[in-house]
């Protein structure tokens, strides 16, 4: 997911097309390792975001505004002094290096035209933003690198700027077949690794993509390639490099189940089984990709407390359920004690006083049975004792049966909430889940201090079900939680709509609007089933069994928990939890 030389080349082309000959009107430094340049060009204002963050170095055009510190840092003040109203002459990438040089022209204090360079190095923990004069002498940098930090290359005011060492890597834009074969194909490594360790700008992703274009496995050894395969690989390499030289880019993001997995400036054929979305610019790709990634990470973080509450409740109820089952098993002797009592009442007249047991015919099974007796009691007292034990176990059995059913329903309910937490993609999706946990006593409601009986202000519910449209044009809705499931099934759907749910496991209610049709196209049934499989506890398995029926066949028992339904008339199918290719509306 890092920015490789190919993505940088796409960024450079976009910045050239947009910012060349523009003038810098504003410079800000919202974070210690970030810059935002506002550039006016062709009567438009553009914001260029540059970050030398060690974990996430970036550069792209954005419309987002960031809050600036009250006092501008020294590096920002230096840039303002030199570059205010300066004109951008050119934007350059040396070879396919992860380096961008912005050539800038400005007037010095004497009114003479001067040239400066603002250089961004996108190199992970070694990323930096460096300001140089026309002779490539460092004026200052956003990070100072002394010889104590790096014995290879100092980045300090007054030092000459030198390009970071590329090691033994070659410039992909200038090599021919002979050099490619010598550098790459003679390395005793897997093919993909041989490519990205030999050529600048190549990331493991692009090395894998090149192998895929050539119909080769990136894990095969370079020594196993035939001459024909090697030549075919080079021809695809040439086409890739020519696309860079021609500026023929196709920036896009690869999604798996709606979550971004990877991005590139070219169409990634190595992810042909996943969904690819093409964007109008590489800046849009970067901004959208990292914003979505951050959103998913933030929601996961915000849901940690809720997950902990649900997990603890599941553990407690599971222990209680196991204990109740064990106690229930102990009540299995109750009918034996009843039979003992009846047989003693029937045949007790023949029992001799002081007997420890007696044998009688069990008229329920026509088999002889030996009944233990308390020799200190009369036969009738023994019978009464067994009936008392039977009645006690019977009462325990009846009570435990109810408790076990309640605990089982609680576990099903908690499991459905846990599945809903996995589905949540936005902060508002968590609001209803939190409300449900409070309503059923798994969380305490917080009260306003100093106001007994006053509850905190209830947050407005803005979360709505997922909305898809099938390949045949039918609208499909997916509940995100139990409250939405009930709303969708019993208030939104009509009796003739179709209802889908994963069989015997927690999951979303999926409703297909039938629009008066008695039957749906097979493809719509399959797509709705895939959605029901994906938005269920079985989303990480290969196949999920799905029940589906008309909505009129789905009933909600009185007093049941949210999301719980029953149905007796249904069809079933097996579906894959893969929703790629199904169009999402919102």
3D structure, described in words:
With 586 residues, the chain is an alpha+beta fold. Among the domains are: 5-141, ibrinogen binding protein from staphylococcus aureus domain (ibrinogen binding protein from staphylococcus aureus fold), CATH 2.30.310.10; 308-420, Helix Hairpins (Orthogonal Bundle); 466-584, no CATH class. The protein is built from 13 helices and 21 strands. It has helices at 5-19, 74-83, 177-185, 191-196, 204-213, 227-246, 282-302, 304-330, 334-347, 379-423, 427-439, 482-492, 522-534; strands at 23-28, 34-41, 44-51, 58-62, 87-92, 99-107, 113-121, 128-133, 138-141, 252-256, 259-264, 275-278, 357-362, 367-372, 466-469, 475-478, 498-502, 510-512, 544-550, 571-575, 583-584. The strands form 5 sheets. It has a 7-stranded antiparallel sheet with strand order 20-19-17-18-16-15-21. Strands 5-6-7-8-9 form a 5-stranded antiparallel sheet, with helices on one face. Strands 1-2-3-4 form a 4-stranded antiparallel sheet. Strand 6 and strand 7 form a beta hairpin. The longest helix has 45 residues, at 379-423. The two termini are 26 Å apart. Belongs to the NEMF family. It comes from Anaerocolumna cellulosilytica. Associates with stalled 50S ribosomal subunits. Binds to RqcP.
């Amino acid at each position: 997911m890092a920015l490789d030389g190919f993505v940088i080349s796409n960024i450079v082309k976009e910045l050239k097309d947009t910012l060349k000959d523009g003038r810098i009107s504003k410079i800000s430094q919202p974070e210690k390792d970030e810059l935002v340049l506002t550039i006016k060009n062709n009567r438009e204002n553009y914001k260029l975001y540059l970050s030398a963050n060690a974990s996430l170095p970036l550069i792209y055009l954005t419309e987002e505004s960031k809050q600036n510190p009250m006092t501008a840092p020294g590096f920002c003040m230096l840039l303002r002094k030199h570059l205010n109203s300066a004109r951008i002459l050119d934007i350059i990438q040396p070879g396919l290096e992860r380096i961008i040089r912005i050539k800038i022209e400005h007037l010095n204090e004497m009114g003479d035209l001067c040239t400066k360079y603002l250089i961004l190095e996108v190199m992970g923990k070694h990323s930096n933003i460096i300001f140089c004069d026309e002779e490539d002498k460092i004026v200052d940098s956003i990070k100072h690198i002394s010889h104590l930090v790096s014995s290879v290359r100092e980045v300090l005011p007054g030092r000459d700027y030198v390009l970071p060492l590329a090691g033994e890597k070659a410039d992909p834009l200038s090599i021919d077949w002979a050099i490619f074969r010598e550098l790459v194909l003679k390395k005793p490594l897997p093919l993909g690794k041989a490519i990205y360790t030999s050529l600048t700008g190549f990331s493991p992703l692009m090395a894998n993509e090149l192998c895929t274009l050539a119909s080769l496995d990136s894990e095969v050894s370079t020594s196993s390639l035939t001459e024909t395969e090697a030549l075919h690989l080079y021809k695809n390499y040439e086409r890739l490099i020519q696309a860079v030289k021609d500026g023929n880019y196709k920036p896009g993001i690869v999604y798996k189940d709606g979550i971004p997995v990877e991005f590139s400036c070219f169409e990634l054929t190595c992810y042909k089984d996943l969904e690819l979305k093409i964007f109008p610019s590489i800046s849009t790709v970067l901004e959208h990709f990292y914003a979505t990634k951050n959103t998913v990470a933030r929601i996961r973080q915000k849901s940690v407390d809720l997950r902990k509450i649900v997990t603890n409740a599941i553990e407690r109820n599971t222990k209680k359920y196991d204990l109740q089952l064990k106690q229930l098993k102990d009540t299995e002797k109750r009918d034996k004690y009843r039979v003992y009592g009846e047989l003693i009442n029937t045949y007790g007249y023949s029992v001799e006083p002081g007997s420890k047991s007696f044998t009688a015919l069990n008229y329920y099974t026509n088999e002889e049975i030996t009944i233990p007796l308390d020799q200190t009691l009369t036969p009738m007292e023994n019978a009464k004792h067994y009936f008392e034990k039977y009645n006690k176990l019977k009462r325990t059995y009846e009570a435990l049966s109810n408790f076990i059913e309640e605990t089982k329903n609680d576990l099903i309910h908690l499991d459905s909430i846990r599945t809903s937490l996995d589905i949540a993609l936005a902060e508002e999706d968590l609001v209803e889940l939190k409300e449900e946990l409070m309503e059923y006593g798994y969380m305490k409601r917080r009260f306003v201090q100093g106001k007994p009986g006053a509850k905190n202000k209830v947050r407005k519910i803005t979360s709505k079900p997922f909305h898809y449209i099938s390949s045949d044009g039918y609208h499909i809705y997916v509940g995100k939680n139990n409250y939405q499931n009930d709303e969708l099934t019993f208030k939104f759907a009509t009796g003739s709509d179709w209802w889908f749910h994963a069989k015997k496991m927690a999951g979303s209610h999926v409703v297909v609007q039938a629009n008066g049709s008695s039957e749906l196209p097979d493809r719509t049934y399959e797509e709705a089933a895939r959605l029901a499989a994906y938005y269920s506890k079985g989303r990480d398995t290969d196949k999920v069994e799905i029940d589906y029926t008309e909505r009129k066949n789905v009933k909600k028992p009185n007093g049941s928990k949210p999301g719980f339904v029953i149905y007796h008339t249904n069809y079933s199918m097996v579906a894959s939890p893969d929703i790629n290719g199904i169009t999402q509306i919102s």
